[in-house]
């Protein structure tokens, strides 16, 4: 099978591309390199530098493709609050254009990188896929809007669709700026012996999923058809301040904490039920938090 990965030069995409190649798939990457890097793309994949809003480039990338893993998108929540139109244009319009190009060339299978953001502040924990969708920010709204388009394309054009709602991915790998993810920022501050920036005194509960486990889910769901939505998380909620303690334990020293106070719109707690994905394809998270953190710290030590 030949797979197109949009956004394959990004942090998560580069891991998915590597795993696809290791599993015997042919891979084409379409990325405009706005936040991704040429060197993130495995040499065995074909990189087409282009934008998902550009139909000519997108159709060129879709030649001979059996399925699309759609990861391209802007991902910075505060930026989406400041400029919702930019996020609508890039993410929603981009996705609809990609779907239209797929329809045009006759490719009808898509796996979409959605986010736990679609749930906003959840009513119940752990979060199941049938929980209400009410995103707290425009980034999450773009993900929810794309999910609705995917539902429609499944209904009227018979697309096979797998929506993966990621919880908090982390792991080794180069990320585009600004980096707003907690774990890389904590590790970088610790290694530089600078204070760790912590909102809410780290009382928020999150579900941190190691990048290899997350990437593997994309391969596992490729065999599915119809319309599917799955959470991808470890099912274990952990306080952000406990992540900081675990980092201190691994590096063997402590640095001060910079208390940044409360952040508006920050969800107090979210963690996944991934039982549905386990039942469908047998997937479950394998890498423990201490092991994942160790590997991530090692990466940042070597790539300061
Ligand atoms: N990192 C997370 O915490 C997280 C959580 C949930 C969901 N996701 C989703 O996973 C996907 C990948 O995220 P990531 O962390 O690897 O981000 P990333 O920024 O590293 O990767 C996104 C890639 O998409 C490319 N891109 C953006 N707009 C494009 C466009 N219009 N045309 C072509 N390429 C474009 C960027 O250059 C980048 O390489 C995104 O869709 C994101 O919303 C990420």
Automatic annotation (TrEMBL):
Keyword set, alphabetical order: Carbohydrate metabolism, Isomerase, NAD
Record EC number: 5.1.3.2
Record flagged with keyword Hydrolase: no
UniProt catalytic activity: UDP-alpha-D-glucose = UDP-alpha-D-galactose
Domain NAD-dependent epimerase/dehydratase, residue spans: 3-233
The protein's annotated pathway: Carbohydrate metabolism; galactose metabolism
GO terms, biological process: galactose metabolic process
Cofactor: NAD(+)
Class of enzymatic activity (EC top level): isomerase
GO molecular function, one term: UDP-glucose 4-epimerase activity
Residues spanning the membrane: none
Family of the protein in this entry: Belongs to the NAD(P)-dependent epimerase/dehydratase family.
PANTHER family in UniProt: UDP-ARABINOSE 4-EPIMERASE 1 (PTHR43725:SF53), UDP-GLUCOSE 4-EPIMERASE (PTHR43725)
Name under which the protein is recorded: UDP-glucose 4-epimerase
Species annotation: Candidatus Curtissbacteria bacterium RIFOXYA1_FULL_41_14
């Amino acid at each position: 099978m030949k797979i197109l990965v949009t956004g394959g030069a990004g942090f998560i995409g580069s891991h998915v591309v590597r795993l696809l190649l290791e599993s015997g798939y042919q891979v084409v990457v379409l990325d405009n390199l706005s936040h991704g890097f040429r060197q993130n793309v495995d040499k065995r994949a074909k990189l087409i530098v282009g934008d998902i809003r550009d139909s000519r480039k997108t159709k060129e990338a879709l030649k001979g493709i059996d399925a699309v893993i759609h990861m391209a998108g802007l991902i910075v929540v505060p930026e989406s609050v400041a400029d919702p139109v930019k996020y609508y244009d890039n993410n929603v319009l981009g996705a609809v254009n990609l779907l239209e190009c797929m329809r045009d060339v006759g490719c009808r299978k898509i796996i979409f990188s959605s986010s736990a953001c679609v749930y906003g502040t959840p009513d119940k924990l752990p979060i199941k896929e049938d929980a209400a969708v009410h995103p707290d920010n425009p980034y999450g709204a773009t993900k929810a809007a794309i999910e609705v388009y995917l539902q429609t394309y499944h209904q009227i054009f018979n697309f096979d669709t797998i929506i993966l709602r990621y919880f908090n991915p982390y792991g080794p790998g180069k990320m585009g700026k600004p980096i707003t993810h907690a774990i890389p920022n904590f590790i970088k501050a610790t290694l530089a012996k600078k204070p760790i920036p912590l909102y809410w005194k780290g009382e928020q509960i999150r579900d941190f999923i190691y990048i290899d486990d997350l990437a593997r889910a994309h391969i596992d769901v490729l065999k599915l058809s119809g319309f599917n939505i799955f959470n991808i998380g470890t099912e274990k909620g952990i306080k952000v301040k406990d992540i900081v303690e675990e980092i201190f334990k691994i590096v063997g020293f402590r640095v001060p904490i910079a208390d940044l106070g409360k952040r508006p719109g920050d969800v107090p707690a979210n963690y996944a039920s991934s039982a549905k994905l386990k039942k469908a394809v047998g997937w479950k998270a394998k890498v423990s938090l201490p092991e994942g953190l160790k590997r991530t710290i090692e990466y940042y030590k070597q790539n300061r």
